[in-house]
Amino acid sequence: MEIWINPACSKCRGALSLLDAEGADYTVRRYLEDVPTEDEIRDVLDRLGLEPWDITRTQEADAKELGLKDWPRDADARDRWVKALAEHPRLIQRPIITAQDGTAVVGRSEEAVRDALSREG
């Protein structure tokens, strides 16, 4: 299990606390420092079953500067969104937890983190 976090994020800290309390075996990725590649973002999107705009923090200053709210949300625009996430990792929703079963969750709630834990087998 890997968790993508921003240490300044309270949701990330909460997810880590829950993982620790449950004795989970996981690896931390500080994705603002160890920025995911476009391929890694595509892989996580596939695992989440989501599109890039679904995991984009559209209220961030970078999103407003890029004008993301006006970008199309369709298959033709998907690569443009992925590229934006790779170039501006602050836009990636967090925390993202990848499970051993090949799935992933956005762990913003205790329920979602427990869901990821349940997928570990």
UniProtKB/TrEMBL annotation:
<dbReference type="Pfam" id="PF03960">
    <property type="entry name" value="ArsC"/>
</dbReference>
<protein>
    <submittedName>
        <fullName>Arsenate reductase family protein</fullName>
    </submittedName>
</protein>
<dbReference type="InterPro" id="IPR006659">
    <property type="entry name" value="Arsenate_reductase"/>
</dbReference>
<dbReference type="InterPro" id="IPR006660">
    <property type="entry name" value="Arsenate_reductase-like"/>
</dbReference>
<dbReference type="InterPro" id="IPR036249">
    <property type="entry name" value="Thioredoxin-like_sf"/>
</dbReference>
<comment type="similarity">
    <text>Belongs to the ArsC family.</text>
</comment>
<keyword id="KW-0560">Oxidoreductase</keyword>
